[in-house]
Amino acid sequence: MSAARTRLIAALDTASYDQASQWASMLEGKVDAIKLGLEFTYACGLDAVRTLSERHALFLDLKLHDIPNTVAAGLKALAPIRPFLTTIHALGGPEMIARARGALEEAFNGGPDRPKLLAVTVLTSMNEQSLTEVGIDSTPLEEVVRLGKMAIQAGADGLVCSAHELTALREELGHKPELIVPGIRLVGNNVDDQKRVMSPTQAAEAGADWIVVGRPITRAEDPAAVAQAIQDELKTASS
Ligand SMILES: O=c1ccn([C@@H]2O[C@H](COP(=O)(O)O)[C@@H](O)[C@H]2O)c(=O)[nH]1
């Protein structure tokens, strides 16, 4: 059983402001936060992101990956939106991660309300074969642990990983880093681009702080009912 309750983030991946806003309203009280990513931000713009962030706890998932100066400047520019979580790619390396953390500290004057910086380790859509295809000769587990240790040492507050790596990451890094887990699938609906998947219960029992669920909620006939069912599962797993 996990120590604290695992919380639920709904990924609102859409190019329509009205659709995202409707989902966010219908999921209010059923999810702990919403996540907006590349599709919504590129299609609707940062003003639309800001508007939703004024009404809902926001994880802004733009997965920045560039030279350290550019990533730091990008995060500074995003700071007024005040997400509580935001992402960079761990593969950007320790200097990029340290500069990113420094930029957030500076933008919030070192205060406690700054967004937590998450390093994306190995995308949950990748498996061992996908890693080989990009020239990485390790298993996803080895690569996630390697990148995760480096990223936390460099200043990340937490990691994005799959549920398969949670136990190993907790053994290496303890309970302090926030571990955020997408690639969550409910029984019978895992035929898509996600490769390293697990159920909400499995992720909660392995120690996820947050799970991120997109299509299983947004493509459901009744998104609020699915979100409630996931919350019930999480509550049982942590009781
Ligand atoms: O490794 C990663 C990092 C981020 N994501 C994001 O999470 C959601 C998952 O959505 P589903 O529809 O439940 O697959 C999506 O916004 C991804 O960009 C991820 O899946 N894996």
Protein model, in words:
Helices cover 44% and strands 15% of the residues. With 239 residues, it is of the alpha/beta class. The chain has one domain (7-238): Alpha-Beta Barrel (TIM Barrel), CATH 3.20.20. The chain is built from eleven helices and eight strands. The relative contact order is 0.16. The protein has helices spanning 17-26, 38-44, 46-55, 68-78, 94-107, 128-133, 140-154, 166-173, 200-205, 215-218, 223-237, and strands spanning 7-11, 33-36, 58-64, 85-89, 116-120, 158-160, 178-181, 210-213. The protein is globular, with a radius of gyration of 17 Å. Strands 1-2-3-4-5-6-7-8 form an eight-stranded parallel barrel, surrounded by five helices. Strand 6, helix 8 and strand 7 form a beta-alpha-beta unit. The site of the ligand O=c1ccn([C@@H]2O[C@H](COP(=O)(O)O)[C@@H](O)[C@H]2O)c(=O)[nH]1 has 15 residues, from strand 8 and helix 10. Residues 7-230 form the Orotidine 5'-phosphate decarboxylase domain.
Strand order of the largest sheet: 1-2-3-4-5-6-7-8
Our measurement of the CA-to-CA distance between the termini, rounded to an integer number of angstroms, reads: 8 Å
Structural class: alpha/beta
Q: What's the CATH H-level superfamily name?
A: Aldolase class I
CATH domain class? Alpha Beta
Model regions low in confidence, pLDDT < 50 over at least 5 residues:
none
Strand % is 15-25%
> Any idea how many domains?
1
